[in-house]
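pipeline stage [seq->struct] | target=Homoserine dehydrogenase | organism=Flavobacterium agri | residues=397
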Amino acid sequence: MRKTLNIGLFGFGCVGFGLYEVLQKTPGLKANIKNICVKNPNKTREIAAENFTFNPDDLLNDPEINVIVELIDDADAAFEITKRALKSGKAVVSANKKMVAEHFEELLQLQRENNVPLLYEAACCASMPIIRNLEEYYDNDLLESIQGIVNGSTNYILTKTSRDKLSYEDALKEAQEKGFAESNPILDTGGFDAKYKLLILLAHSFGHIAKPDDLLNIGIDGLGGLELKYASEKGWKIKLVAQAFKHSDGNVGAFVLPKFVSPEDRLYNVDDVFNGVVTKTSFADEQFFVGRGAGAHPTASAVLSDISALTYDYKYEYKKISRGEEIALAEELDLNVFLRHEKLDAETLKPYFKKVSESYLNGEAGYITGTISFENLKKVQKDETLKKSFVLLDVIR
Ligand SMILES: NC(=O)c1ccc[n+]([C@@H]2O[C@H](COP(=O)([O-])OP(=O)(O)OC[C@H]3O[C@@H](n4cnc5c(N)ncnc54)[C@H](OP(=O)(O)O)[C@@H]3O)[C@@H](O)[C@H]2O)c1
């Protein structure tokens, strides 16, 4: 029989209020919000003041509340709330990818020790049901790779630069004005948000738990005119792609990099704030998920789905992790890349390549395309004296 849920809700911002509205329209679900905790006592709210508290204890110590839904924008506070809730036997639903990615191991442990679930479908690609599919559907098939556009703001900026020919600065400004990008956008544009999501995908697809520092993320903030022109001349687009794949050495390659995509690629038409994920399995070949990766109602719909799953006691079994297979991150990789650089650095950079396919110089800048080891790519990327930008052509497997 389905359980009745009494929800203690943390956060009443974009997603929190979105969830409130979505729950009003889903009367069939046996779930009601009992209390809401927010931070700022001086804010005007969309609903009456008596619905709110500013004291987390009012939710966490209430024995009638059996589910905490955590929708706040502070990953450290979110972790404290989640930890306390799980320890007191309350199930938790969260949308916070940074919290889940940074504390994956501890959160797994807390769930096991206290025998209560933590669900976080909304943390990865908002409305797209990717985590539960990886957990359940792809358990029996041989998953080879998962790759996707998992960050809506950067996709919006890239769409504006390629389709509407806006400069990077203007596209970013427009994304900020429309609320798609933060005033300090580096979490998105630097590829960090995409990396947090990739860490979650990596655990649910291949059973590898990594820390944020373990994975390379190159964002779109360093992209320049040469690579955009290169893409446009070939009829391609540049997308920020997070990917994890089985390498021929048995390990798993995983990173976030800007990538050229051709019209044949399923990610080519994933534009604006949409997200898209392509899975490839040994027998089913490719499957493609596309949907809204942000926004109040799309994100709330994934939170709602987790709440609904709790009414029938659903929990992630972390099947791939439980198998205990030793899977390491693949480091011995070769990639075909485009590297844009300053004219003066051309000869310094060529020796990093195993094979140079093309090189070009104009008045002040140039590019090299060719094959580079993952190790050398990371060395060049780390060198802050070099002005450069990498765009992936493909991974050699
Ligand atoms: N927005 C999206 O499209 C989207 C998509 C996917 C995932 N997410 C994730 O969903 C979560 C919420 O995002 P959002 O866009 O809804 O954020 P938001 O609009 O900035 O709202 C944040 C809410 O959290 C509350 N809050 C902050 N610190 C708190 C604390 N210590 N205790 C209690 N309440 C606290 C704020 O309270 P006040 O109202 O008092 O300021 C506010 O109500 C984040 O983890 C985000 O990454 C968002």
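stage status: PASS
auto-comment: The mean pLDDT is 95. The radius of gyration is 22 Å.
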